[in-house]
Design a protein that fits this description.
Structural class: alpha/beta
Family: Belongs to the metallo-dependent hydrolases superfamily. ATZ/TRZ family.
Cofactor: Zn(2+)
Shape: globular
CATH class of the largest domain: Alpha Beta
GO biological process, one term: guanine catabolic process
Bound molecules: guanine, fe (iii) ion
Keywords: Hydrolase, Metal-binding, Zinc
Catalytic activity: guanine + H2O + H(+) = xanthine + NH4(+)
Low-confidence stretches: none
CATH topology of the largest domain: TIM Barrel
Largest sheet: 9 strands, parallel
Length: about 425
């Protein structure tokens, strides 16, 4: 058995914090100990207590004065868009047609997909992200590269071969039958292998014919335990075009509803411009809206009403994500910095406890995976991030004035990035050190 004892300042959430003063919503241990046995958290608490549970000679790593949190979770990003990031486009549809679709065509080549996969996981680890929910390209080769690399690094990843059969270049189209068959092959090859989860992934209604939507509906019926991911209500032109393509549907959300794609394992990227009716349906079905703040600002898509959706009488479940390459940073800290600013523009407050809850336990709840990831609870997997609030000279200077934990978290969120991540553990193994 491999055991390690980490020492540092532990932070883990029990539930969503109700306010900045809600100290019952989280565990904070100033001199904390975290015992890891065979990749799982065996104990977490005061260092002096946890130390007594460690066998004689257990390797000990002292991360003080840094914070040790559950690894960050990114609920929506595109693995084949690492070289799309920072593309100068006016809006979503121009960005897709001009930059994104041509780039994704390259992932038919295994060698290219494998090369990008290496960089993709390096970047996640560098930024403290230990689980991510990704779109591959339409090509099975891209899903193979994505899941093979996840297994090499023993990371808990969710991903799917994109299904798309219209309104894109020929090199990026499958057919209803191909999309169905290849998704089944990806499931057979990868789901449950290592820590991999396969998601059913119709890109969005614009790129799927009704016949392909029928095929995704069939997959959803056959594999009710799998996650489903797609895009919803991101941009006004997109919404208008989508509704023209599905004239019988009441609205954008109703298109997916008609094919049985709503539910507690369904993850909808963006969902910015939902009507009250759509938000009700999302809530009633337990569907998750994924906020992608850097992407929404970068593409000018709109301001996601996070707080308003969460406090509805029928609240909508929410996740947070980078949406690389529409998003502009791999960092979940930067992502929450932008999420904060969007709520400011909407006249709302997103407090730092809520932000850290969302990046960790909140996203794990949105994935229905809190039994495995997202907390420091004993028995869960030792995916961790170690954050240094004095990582840069400017941060160290500001830190001199910081008096409370929420203030320190806010500093990390506002000024932090990959430099702030002192270490990233995947199933108990320090991964960032290996990249330096
Ligand atoms: N809608 C359909 N495909 C995409 C994509 O790749 N990125 C974003 N942001 N929106 C989409
Ligand atoms: Fe996206």
């Amino acid at each position: 058995m491999t055991t390690t004892l980490l020492r540092g300042r532990l932070l883990s959430f029990h539930r969503a914090p109700l306010s900045l003063a809600d100290s019952q919503s989280y565990l904070y241990e100033e001199d904390g100990g975290l015992l890891i046995e065979d990749g799982l958290i065996a104990a977490a608490g005061p260092y002096a207590d946890v130390k007594t549970k460690a066998a004689e000679g257990t390797a000990e790593i002292d991360h003080r004065p840094h914070l040790i949190l559950p690894g960050l979770i990114d609920m929506h990003l595109h693995f084949p868009q690492m070289q799309v990031i920072a593309s100068y486009a006016a809006n979503l549809l121009e960005w897709l047609n001009t930059y994104t679709f041509p780039e994704e065509c390259r992932f038919v080549e295994s060698a290219h997909a494998e090369r990008i996969a290496t960089h993709f996981y390096d970047e996640l680890i560098r930024h403290g992200t230990t689980t991510a929910v990704a779109y591959c390209s339409v090509h099975k080769t891209s899903a193979d590269a994505f899941f093979a690399e996840a297994m090499k690094r023993n990371m808990r990843m969710v991903g799917g071969k994109v299904m798309m059969d219209r309104n894109a270049p020929q090199g990026l189209l499958d057919t209803p039958e191909m999309g169905y068959d290849e998704t089944r092959h990806v499931i057979a090859d990868w789901h449950g292998k290592g820590r991999n989860h396969v998601a059913i992934t119709p890109r969005f209604a614009i790129t799927s014919t009704p016949a392909q939507m029928e095929a995704t509906a069939a997959l959803a019926r056959e594999f009710p335990d799998l996650h489903i991911q797609t895009h919803l209500s991101e941009n006004h032109d997109e919404i208008k075009y989508t509704c023209e393509l599905y004239p019988d549907a009441i609205d954008y959300t109703d298109i997916y509803a008609r094919y049985g794609l709503l539910g507690p394992k369904s993850l909808f990227g963006h969902a910015i411009h939902l009507s009250e009716r759509e938000a009700d349906v999302m809530s009633e079905t337990g569907s998750v809206a994924i906020h992608c703040p850097t992407s929404n600002l970068f593409l000018g898509s709109g301001l996601f009403p996070l707080k308003a959706l969460a406090r509805r009488e029928k609240p909508v479940r929410i996740g947070v994500a980078t949406d690389i390459g529409g998003g502009s940073s791999y960092s979940m800290l930067k992502t929450m910095d932008e999420a904060y600013k969007i709520q400011q523009l909407l006249g709302e407050r997103l407090n730092p406890l809520e932000s850290y809850y969302l990046m960790t336990r909140g996203n794990a709840e949105a994935l229905s995976l809190t039994d495995r990831i997202g907390t420091l609870d004993p028995g869960t997997e030792a995916d961790l991030v170690v954050l240094d609030a004095a990582a840069t000279p400017a941060m160290a200077l500001k830190l001199e004035t910081v008096k409370t934990l929420p203030e320190e978290l806010f500093l990390l969120q506002t000024m932090g990035d990959d430099r702030t991540v002192a270490e990233t553990y995947v199933a108990g193994v320090a991964m960032k050190a290996g990249l330096r």
